[in-house]
């Protein structure tokens, strides 16, 4: 059998009658009009089935039953106060936490510097970094699983807000002994499409950008599908085959001569790095500061 829970406000009024000696004074302390307080007490008497106040020409006083109820009302109100205090503490703790979700490429090569600068300004800020591919990051942002996300996807789902924080470029890389490294002319897009490549998994921003760029050409089956740019880079270095990766993932190896960039004629593989979030449209707090830092530091790097 379900029970009707008493209103905390009317319990506070009863406690006020005990503390102050009158219903009028109790109502004023709780910010209620006296007629409203009187009706609330009568409703509680009906719900409990016992008289709580003796009403007379000189005002109202607690009945013996009312005195017992007030004793327990004080306990209930004290517990409710502790609940509100705990909720306030949780809100305060939440304001000092930031959940960030980033795609693999951004997380590996850019986010550490962004978060390091943010932490230097906010030493008490707890930061949680989640790393996924771009599709999973967008799903997490949509579901409210993080405060801010960073992706390199060509588009952002409806209902999410976004801004560009930097630019990136995909490049074709091979080892120095690969035949493509000795080409005198650029690779044609159809040649690239017809070649088995080491690629990122479906859902990654890198894979989506490549697939979009080559959508008009017949594609060869991938040599390997891997879940990170680091794994793709290692496979190319091991001689598995050519790959299309972010310049962020191979900059050091290209500068050292361990990998060579092969130009592709007329193929655009530039992409935007985006911050994505849900409501509100205008970010505030640590999330806004992180995006500002990313926009300042997230400059494109050339291979």
The appropriate CATH architecture of the largest domain is 3-Layer(aba) Sandwich
CATH fold naming of the largest domain = D-Maltodextrin-Binding Protein, domain 2
Q: Characterize the main sheet.
A: 7 strands, mixed
The averaged pLDDT comes out at 88
From the spread of the alpha carbons, the general shape counts as rod-shaped
What is the helix tally? 12
User: Mind telling me the CATH class of the largest domain?
Assistant: Alpha Beta
* Strand/helix succession: HHHEEHEHHEHEEHEHEHEHEEH
Structural class: alpha/beta
Helicity range of the residues? 40-55%
Number of strands: 11
Question: Which runs of at least 5 residues are low in confidence (pLDDT < 50)?
Answer: none
**What's the Cα radius of gyration?**
32 Å
Spatial separation of the terminal alpha carbons: 72 Å
Count up the domains: 3
Task: Classify the beta-strand content into a percent band.
Answer: 15-25%
């Amino acid at each position: 059998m379900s029970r009707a829970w008493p209103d905390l406000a009317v319990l506070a009024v009863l406690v006020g009658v005990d503390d102050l000696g009158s219903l009028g004074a109790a109502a004023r302390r709780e910010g209620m009009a006296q007629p409203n307080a009187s009706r609330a007490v009568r409703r509680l008497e009906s719900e409990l089935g016992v008289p709580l106040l003796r009403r007379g020409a000189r005002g109202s006083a607690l009945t013996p039953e009312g005195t017992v109820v007030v004793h327990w009302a004080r306990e209930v109100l004290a517990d409710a106060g502790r609940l509100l205090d705990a909720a306030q503490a949780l809100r305060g703790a939440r304001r000092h936490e930031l959940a960030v979700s980033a795609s693999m490429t951004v997380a590996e090569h850019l986010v550490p510097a962004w978060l390091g600068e943010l932490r230097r300004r906010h030493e008490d800020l707890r930061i949680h970094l989640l790393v996924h591919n771009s599709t999973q990051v967008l799903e997490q942002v949509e579901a409210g699983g993080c405060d801010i996300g960073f992706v390199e996807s060509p588009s952002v789902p409806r209902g999410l807000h976004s801004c560009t924080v930097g630019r990136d470029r995909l490049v074709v890389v091979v080892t120095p002994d690969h035949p493509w490294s000795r080409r005198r002319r650029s690779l044609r897009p159809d040649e690239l499409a017809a070649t088995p490549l080491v690629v990122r998994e479906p859902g990654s921003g890198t894979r989506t950008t490549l697939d979009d760029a080559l959508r008009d050409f017949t594609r060869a089956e991938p040599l390997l599908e891997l879940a990170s740019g680091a794994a793709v880079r290692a496979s190319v270095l091991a001689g598995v085959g050519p790959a299309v990766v972010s310049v962020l993932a191979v900059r050091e190896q290209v500068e050292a001569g361990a990998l060579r960039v092969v130009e592709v004629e007329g193929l655009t593989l530039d992409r935007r790095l985006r911050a994505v979030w849900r409501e509100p449209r205008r970010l505030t707090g640590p999330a806004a500061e992180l995006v500002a830092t990313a926009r300042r530091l997230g400059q494109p790097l050339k291979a």
